[in-house]
Amino acid sequence: MHTNKQILFFLVCISFLLNALHAWGAQSDSLVLSCGLEDGGTDMYGRKWAPDSKYLNGSNSITIRAGFQDPSLLSEIPYMTARIFTSEATYKFQVKTDKRYWLRLHFYPSAYGNFNPADSYFSVTVNGLTLLKNFSASITCEALSQAYIVREYSLAPLDSKTLTVIFKPSSSFAFVNGIEVIEMPDLFDSAKMVGTSDQIDVKGVHSQTMYRLNVAGQFIPPTNDSGLTRTWYDDLPYLNGAQLGTTNAISQNVKIQYKSMPAYVAPVEVYSSSRSMGVNKAINEGFNLTWVFQVDPNSTYLLRFHFCDFYYSKPNQLVFSIFVNNQTAEATADVIGWSGGKAVPTYQDYMTYFTDASGDQKLWVALHPTDETRPEYFDVIINGLEIFKLSDTTGNLAGPNPKPSPMLLQYEAVEKSSFKKSDTSKAKVIGGAVGGAAAFGILAALVFVVYQRKRQIYGTESQTSSWLPIYGNSHTSGSKSTISGKSNASSNISALAQGLCRHFSLAEIKKVTKNFDERQQLTEKSDVYSFGVVLFEVLCARPALNPSLPKEQVSLADWALNCKRKGVLDDIIDPNIKGKIHPECLKKFADTAEKCLAEVGYERPSMGDVLWNLEFALQLQDNNEDSNHSSQCGESSTSDESPKNDTMAMHRKNLSIESEHETSDESIETSAIFSQIVNPKGR
Ligand SMILES: *[C@@H]1O[C@H](CO)[C@@H](O)[C@H](O)[C@H]1NC(C)=O
Ligand SMILES: *[C@@H]1O[C@H](CO)[C@@H](O)[C@H](O)[C@H]1NC(C)=O
Ligand SMILES: *[C@@H]1O[C@H](CO)[C@@H](O)[C@H](O)[C@H]1NC(C)=O
Ligand SMILES: *[C@@H]1O[C@H](CO)[C@@H](O)[C@H](O)[C@H]1NC(C)=O
Ligand SMILES: *[C@@H]1O[C@H](CO)[C@@H](O)[C@H](O)[C@H]1NC(C)=O
Ligand SMILES: *[C@@H]1O[C@H](CO)[C@@H](O)[C@H](O)[C@H]1NC(C)=O
């Protein structure tokens, strides 16, 4: 008996070790390359990116840094450097002949020196398979309202020891910012063809990921995936119509249990949240829970539905129908029937050939309860959804460049006209170079902020929003939309769908404001409000709006003020400066930001006052750092007669944020640190 147990223990240990080795082996097969970056580096999620040069064949490439960091890029790596090809260039990667691989291509269509991404059209092939053809990253990003795009392909075994990825410019130049080649398990088996009863074998297909959604859940970064470095997005932007159903979250005492499927299929987070219709049968009868996706026409798609019911535990408690493009994919979907139990995840694959009969390139997915099997409840449930485009028989995955949707064009038209009557629409635009200083060296050098109240047009129910998924959607709880310019947020926060947010380029802002016309009758005080938002963005290293967060946290302005008033601002500031920023400095900085955000314009300080107070915050930080370093200062520092402390003492007496009318001009003139305000050429 005893020996048996020991042997068993030994075997368990061995298998544990083998697993660990296997995991390590898989890891070492990963190539995560930042193109044109000489030494590699780490991105916002802590992923390591290596240089690409040793895999590249061809001396016709140029390495260039982007001139502008879009605010949705939370770190410089891999997007701020690009490799530009003026003629055909080849990457070669050693792979195993019998394994499936992720190939991810990252594109950030920004200006690179004299290279204008709008001129760039190119193709990308891998071992004869066409991934991109006449591809314009610039047009694609514009149409999708994204700053950058990641194209993710899952390549079936190519029967070759080398993956040969060829970039070929069809005009001007080709470029790429990042390349990932990562071994992966076989994700696909067979799928049911919608409209038939056929199961189609999809083991050997190549696919392109179109959408990957954590339904009713949050953005999941690659580092939080279940081992396959996938990115999962919130489904809200794709929901169609006004009926969003309800969202459900697993309770703490229920644990997700993977039974018949491996955990890499999708992470626990995906199965821990679900969307359903609600409890009212009469209401549920009247609508379909519907998502709409923009896809390329004339292609085959595989849709993977992820399910996990963490409420019910018996078959036929909850049964519903699944429609894909208005065809019945599944008449009686029964999650517990499939999974075998409560909190056990399962998934179903369906295939459809999308011809685009209506011409609007929209793929519809809908769920509706069914009475067919007389289930106990009249509801639906879904936890995750992935949509893959499958390669055709000629080995082609490329589609046409998308066209900006009529909605996007309409939006831009509305934007333009709204600026003309801005006093009624409350639109506020600030453009300005702000040269203040914050002690911790994370101050934005140049900030452009567009702050605007979302107008009624977005509150209408009928819209679909495959474009502008975040800000244009009527369902997001925030009523404000703030788009900020370059902010040096060095952070690892979860930014939902960075790529999915609409970010305005400087050129666009200039266009709609008539050069600051005066996948405007604005008051100075509106500027001050916007700047207050920027201050909190800098302090908390997160965007002004993050719809992936819980409702009360979506708007940074509201959330930060709330935290400040509760005295817990410390909890939400950038971890990188936490502990380094002196409490007094933090207080001054936050007070300043708070004042800027006063509801009524006349309560907000003048920009001069703001700068003044930021300078003061800087002094508080510097001073406290000094006294920390030299022990003899300590408690007695206030009696020190150095000029610096004189200034400080004066500040302590006089400085507080007042409205501009109460600010004494004389006190400004007496202080050297305000020279830069008094003399605008100072900075
Ligand atoms: C690049 O590839 C071509 C064709 O495959 C080959 O002839 C050439 O030697 C390669 N050059 C380098 C530097 O590897
Ligand atoms: C899709 O196929 C139809 C019929 O063959 C054709 O008329 C249409 O132009 C195709 N669309 C695209 C975008 O290729
Ligand atoms: C599906 O039905 C909706 C209306 O219910 C319609 O607007 C849409 O165009 C249809 N989609 C397809 C692909 O037929
Ligand atoms: C739900 O969608 C299906 C397929 O498009 C359609 O036949 C049905 O009428 C829809 N039901 C409701 C209530 O909209
Ligand atoms: C390339 O794409 C552009 C933009 O979508 C399109 O106008 C042009 O006709 C395409 N060219 C070819 C050869 O397909
Ligand atoms: C990712 O995982 C880490 C560690 O489990 C967790 O702290 C973090 O909140 C997760 N991030 C997101 C966006 O889920």
TrEMBL record:
Transmembrane segments: 429-451
Organism placement in taxonomy: Eukaryota, Viridiplantae, Streptophyta, Embryophyta, Tracheophyta
Protein name as it appears in the record: Malectin-like domain-containing protein
Membrane topology: Single-pass type I membrane protein
Composition skew (Polar residues), residue ranges: 629-640, 669-683
A GO term, aspect molecular function: ATP binding
Region (Disordered): 624-683
Subcellular localization: Membrane
GO CC term (a single one): membrane
Signal sequence residues: 1-23
Pfam hit, one: Malectin_like
